[in-house]
Design goal:
The protein is of the alpha/beta class and 469 residues long. It is 50% helix and 7% strand. It contains 20 helices and six strands. It is globular, with a radius of gyration of 23 Å. Bound molecules: flavin-adenine dinucleotide (FAD). The site of flavin-adenine dinucleotide has 29 residues, from α10, α12, α16 and α18. Flavin-adenine dinucleotide binds next to α10, α12, α16 and α18.
Length: 469
């Protein structure tokens, strides 16, 4: 096996050669809003230096994405601001624009080569492929946001996490390399319109976004991601395996939004963790089991299963058992609106729904309980599937991610095995309120959420009063 597998991230996806007559190298950034361990940026700089041309980094803004709202876009914008400043320090021009496909193509037309981050979800992939088909210079896609290039660990669809676990841990060192960016030889800041934060702000003002969903607990950007990572390594990681599931404590990393928006690479996380801790430490193993095994499994899932977003993705036994119990009497039935507003009989469920709706990130363990209960409380499990995807992606700051689809699908039996048969949920793994009570001080979790909500309401009221004064 080669000593450094990172070169396998890069795929040339058309037959055109690099155009030495091109004006610049064009990095169409999608999910690499960071400097460190940004493998697309590294390739783009190397190409620019090879041809002694300037490098243009470009981010195309669009509205009208499914479920997107101000919460997501605000986090994105914070990441873009920081990326702009960091690229400036490297003498690299960055443009952020609400752009049509034709505008992106017109930039690509004048390029030596086009480099972009590989995307995996159907809509984004379709768009990237359709643009790539019209680009008449060399185009490279870089797998920039997974730890491994997706089909290195397993070159087919995995059905269980254990199928990839050994390889994930075996090849860790073949990715975990020091990361260096060459200095750009041609300063591109002079070649393009000087783009500032205010210009990004203007572009965002042109978007037609749902502003009702706006609050978020986290600030986007690479430096925030690193700060959160360092704090996690220092204070929480030593207790991770003991407390990670516990919803009333906050002992997980909270890195999922940063991973989703590409503000940090899993490669960086692994390197930083292993600088201070050993893989033999059970906490590190447990954390990597989530960050690497389950997260990489989600890339495998969306890559190989084009039905990842709907009920067709679940295994035959799960579909059969849910169908067998289709007519079972439901003790509770809720409408989409009841669920969205957190108006059920179950105070634990309502609390986690509100945590997601008002703060943008539900505690890890509660996500499983949350989805399982909706299956029981909806007249039709297929409808429950759609509703869960919709609510998750609308409110979670880390939503619309491969992990979102894996998480929902897992709750319907995917990557799991059959359990004891029960009403409604059949042989799909069951979770109960009693289970929460036995495992955790779950009432404390409800109190915590209610208290935070109270503070948030008071804060909003205070701010409105200030505005009025
Ligand atoms: C119904 C349901 C919906 C979910 N929706 C999402 C979603 O929209 N976006 C999302 O990123 N995750 C989702 N998850 C997975 C998981 O709950 C979150 O990744 C985790 O809670 C994020 O918090 P953290 O970063 O503090 O996690 P940590 O415990 O610190 O874990 C570190 C990283 O590992 C990855 N990870 C952790 N748990 C899982 C998991 N079960 N599956 C895959 N990767 C995991 C995440 O990237 C996470 O940031 C969902 C799970 C379920 C059951």
């Amino acid at each position: 096996m080669d000593k450094d597998l990172n070169y396998l991230r890069i795929k040339k996806i058309n037959n055109y050669s690099d155009n030495s007559q091109g004006e610049y190298v064009f990095y169409w950034v999608i999910s690499g809003l960071r400097i460190e361990d940004n493998f697309s940026l590294k390739l783009a700089i190397e190409k620019a230096n090879q041809f002694k041309k300037p490098l243009l980094v470009f981010f195309g803004l669009r509205d009208g994405y499914y479920w997107s709202n101000w919460r997501h876009y605000h986090f994105l914008k914070e990441g873009l601001f920081e990326f702009l400043e960091n690229l400036k320090k490297l003498n690299i021009a960055f443009i952020v624009k609400k752009a049509t496909d034709d505008e992106i193509l017109s930039y690509a037309k004048k390029a030596v080569a086009v480099i972009s981050d590989e995307v995996y979800l159907n809509g984004a992939k379709k768009r990237q492929e359709s643009l790539a088909n019209k680009i008449e210079v060399s185009m490279y896609l870089v797998e920039n946001n997974s730890y491994y290039p997706v089909n290195i660990v397993l070159n087919k669809k995995a059905n269980f996490a254990w199928q990839i676990r050994d390889n994930i841990f075996k090849f860790l060192d073949l990715i975990k390399k020091d990361f260096f960016l060459e200095k750009v030889q041609v300063n591109s800041l002079n070649f393009f319109q000087n783009f500032e934060k205010e210009d990004i702000e203007k572009e965002f003002n042109n978007l037609n976004l749902d502003k009702k969903i706006y609050f978020k607990k986290f600030i986007g950007g690479e430096s925030k991601a690193l700060e959160i990572l360092n704090e996690f390594i220092e204070k929480k990681l030593p207790y991770y395996s003991k407390f990670r599931s516990n919803p009333e404590k906050d002992f997980t990393s909270n890195l999922s939004p940063y991973l989703h928006f590409g503000n940090i690479s899993p490669v960086k996380i692994v390197k930083e963790v292993l600088k201070k801790h050993s893989l033999k430490d059970e906490n590190v193993y447990s954390f990597f089991n989530e960050l690497l095994v389950w997260r990489e499994l989600s890339f495998n899932f969306v890559y190989f299963d084009k039905n990842y977003y709907n009920f067709k993705s679940i295994p035959f036994w799960a579909k059969k058992t849910l169908d067998d119990h289709k007519s079972d009497k439901r003790d509770y039935l809720y409408s989409f609106d009841d669920l969205e507003q957190g108006k059920t009989h179950d105070c634990y469920w309502n609390a986690c729904q509100k945590e997601m709706v008002y703060f943008g990130k539900m505690a890890n363990y509660m996500r499983m309980y949350w989805a399982k209960k909706v299956i029981e409380w909806t007249e039709d499990w297929q409808k429950a599937y759609d509703w869960l995807v919709k609510i998750n992606n609308k409110y979670e700051l880390d939503g619309r991610d491969p992990n979102s689809y894996l998480g929902v699908s897992w709750c319907f039996g995917n990557f799991d095995r059959p359990w004891f048969e029960r009403k409604i949920i059949g042989k799909v793994r069951y979770m109960s309120a009693n289970g929460l009570e036995n495992k955790f001080d779950i009432k404390k979790y409800v109190e915590k959420i209610n208290k935070e909500l109270d503070l948030r309401t008071k804060d909003l009221f205070h701010r409105q009063n200030l505005q009025r004064e």
